[in-house]
Amino acid sequence: MSPDLIVYSDDHLAVVSKPAGLVVHAAPGHRGETLVSVLGELLGGGEDPIRPGVVHRLDRDTSGLMIVARTDAAHRALAAAIKERHVDREYLALVSGRPRSRTGTIDAPLGRDYRRPERRAVGGRGARDARTHFEVVEETGPDTLVKAKLETGRTHQIRAHFAAIGHPVIGDGRYGGPRRYGLDRQFLHSARLGFTHPASGEALEFESALPADLVEALDRARDA
Fold it and tell me: ∠ CA 171-121-190 to the nearest 5 degrees?
């Protein structure tokens, strides 16, 4: 297990920094290393042996912070906190174009795209409520760096929501995001997590700086 992944750890939980390109857990069609296999015995809790300790996920090509559980009790408590929206999850994304306002909320239910089931779409099959709050951080060339905060946590939520309002995430080919600035993945990073420790009740907050590939892309965007 790489110690570089571990941001914080105690007997109950850990906060890890997932690199882009690493799948969280095994799934049909995927072979090879996963975050679960890399973390190994650090993880614990939950009823699914394929993803012990996993209480939420990041897409393969999204980098940044995740909480994982180490015990059954922590897994139950953290899963409940996420379901009840008591975990603050904040991302940085570079999106195409200029949103119409500097702050806003995208409130649009998401489900599986009827024509492309690997995607999520507003009003898609089995759509569930989904809300993303955003704030413009910086206008960079033709694009905009935004801070996106999840109220709900649907699959591909930020990616699908920004695509739906005409501002797909840069580098996100699946949702129509243009490929530029040398990126080979979407410009999306889990930058901040805030939550209450399930055992001690302590308020915890963690931040993660942009990784090198996104820093380089942002510098290129500023020069565009």
Answer: 45
CA distance linking residue 74 with residue 56, whole number of Å: 13
pLDDT single digits (tens) 25-55? 766 555 678 999 889 888 999 888 888 999 9
SS3 content of the chain, % helix, strand, coil (to 5): 20, 35, 45
Q: Where are the alpha helices (DSSP H) in the chain?
A: 35-39, 72-83, 157-164, 212-223
Domain ranges of the chain: 3-223
**How far is the CA of 156 from the CAs of 8, 21, 92, 190, in angstroms?**
26, 15, 14, 13
The third-level CATH classification (topology) of the domain covering 3-223 is: Pseudouridine synthase (3.30.2350)
How far, in Å, CA of 75 to CA of 213, rounded? 32
What token pair was written down for 39?
Answer: 């973390």
pLDDT of residue 54: 93
Q: How far, CA to CA in Å, does 150 sit from each of 2, 41, 72, 215, 216?
A: 28, 29, 25, 23, 26
Contacts of 131 (CB under 8 A, 6+ apart): 105, 106, 107, 150, 151, 152
**Residues labelled as active-site residues:** 59
124 is written with which tokens? 């898609």
Which amino acid, 6? I
Radius of gyration of the chain (CA): 17
